[in-house]
Amino acid sequence: TNPVFTGIATTVFETMSRLAMAHGAVNLGQGFPDVDGPVDIRQAAADALLQGPNQYPPMLGIPDLRQAVAEANRRFYGLEVDPQTEVMVTSGATEALADCIFALVSPGDEVVLIEPLYDCYLPLVKQAGGIPVRVRVTPPNWSLDAEALKAAFSDKTKAVLINNPMNPTAKVFSDEELELVASLCRQYDAYAICDEVYEHLVFDGHRHTPLMTLDGMRERTVRIGSAGKTFSLTGWKVGYVTGPAALMDPIAKAHQWVTFTTPPHLQMAVAYGLRKDDSYYDGLSQDLAAKRDRMAAGLAALGFSVLPCNATYFLTCGFEGLGLGRTDVEACETLVTAAGVAAVPVSAFYGSDAPEGYIRFCFCKQDAVIDEALARLSAFL
Ligand code: PMP
Ligand code: GLN
């Protein structure tokens, strides 16, 4: 069997969700909202399911969704994209990541990754035969060290894989950081694979800037979005990739052997969803920011050191002095078994030598659920 897949544990998200269920814990581990996304989008999917067609859609995605993705690129970022040749629909951002990595990375190519990293990145790069080169952002502000990033690039660099806004750190990369990444891509003629699934979950006047919009990046960047995140429908697994035609061609070849296509009724509903007006997108981030504030205030009052959170669904916290255990894994075990609250150890987002002092709580939950989790923590601590 393939050591890339046999040597590793089940994902931390699945593991924690199973433990949460087994212990009747409030699940603030795996990132998913506990209220389904807009009813009109779900109605659009239900209508399309009944009316059909329900047969294989085109491999690149139904034309209306590719058109809607192109429109969204123009509307939110001023990017001009050809829906025929520069957009592809996938079964979730996870599939998009696999397609992009398999298509753009050849054995022996180096891929620069920013750590902490989303859990599928390392296995996918390794499966492609790529050599991961990891650079860290460091708490509490998760800032990117320019010298470390420069040192990670070389003539062997084929691509950088960047998650912005970033899970689990809730960081939005600054303009300066993005310009540094772009300048290194230009200098070393590297591709950028941008995981931007949290593009619309950005708070407090922060703005998401796709790396693709920077000088010289349009022709070397692919950017990935997820309807799961944008519409609070994580189980749908509808993603989309935007990139220059020359890169989309091999990416589509990878896609044809991974899933080939994505259920048509979901694609139709996502096309409808992407065209929702600004009040939807503004409301989404405002609601989440209020939940972040609710949970951050509660955790801080209990003695957690809550790190800044400018985006995503996640709060990372230190737990020193709370008696939860020495490491983040111990702390999460204690919390799920004894306090009845599931969180995720941040060390799971590292390839090796992880810091062990941080845990991640997911806050895209109903207020009553957040309050229940805080009450359980308060009773336990
Ligand atoms: N990238 C990041 C950074 C994520 O957090 C997630 C999961 N939520 C994904 C990709 C996967 O998205 P999807 O569910 O659309 O496959
Ligand atoms: N992205 C989600 C998280 O970070 C998990 C998705 C999954 O379970 N694969 O929690």
Assign the CATH superfamily of the largest domain: Type I PLP-dependent aspartate aminotransferase-like (Major domain)
Distance between the termini: 45 Å
What is the chain-wise order of helices and strands? HHEHHEHEHEEHEHEEHEHHHEEHEEEH
Rg calculated over all Cα atoms: 20 Å
Share of helical residues: 40-55%
Number of helices, where a helix is a run of at least 4 consecutive DSSP H or I residues: 14
- Tell me, briefly, the overall form: globular
Tell me the CATH architecture of the largest domain: 3-Layer(aba) Sandwich
Low-confidence stretches: none
Describe this structure in words.
One of its GO terms (cellular component) is cytoplasm. One of its GO terms (molecular function) is pyridoxal phosphate binding. It holds the Pfam family Aminotran_1_2. Its cofactor is pyridoxal 5'-phosphate. Belongs to the class-I pyridoxal-phosphate-dependent aminotransferase family. The structure is a single chain. The protein is an alpha/beta fold and 381 residues long. The protein has 2 domains: 130 residues, Aspartate Aminotransferase, domain 1 (Alpha-Beta Complex); 238 residues, Type I PLP-dependent aspartate aminotransferase-like (Major domain) (Aspartate Aminotransferase, domain 2, 3-Layer(aba) Sandwich). The protein is 43% helix and 16% strand. It contains 14 helices and 14 strands. The strands form 3 sheets. It has an 8-stranded mixed beta sheet, with helices on both faces. The chain has a 4-stranded antiparallel beta sheet with strand order 10-11-14-13. A two-stranded parallel ribbon has the order 1-12. A hairpin with a 4-residue loop joins strand 4 and strand 5. The radius of gyration is 20 Å and the shape is globular. The termini are far apart. The model has no long low-confidence stretch (mean pLDDT 97). The site of 4'-deoxy-4'-aminopyridoxal-5'-phosphate has 14 residues, from helix 5.
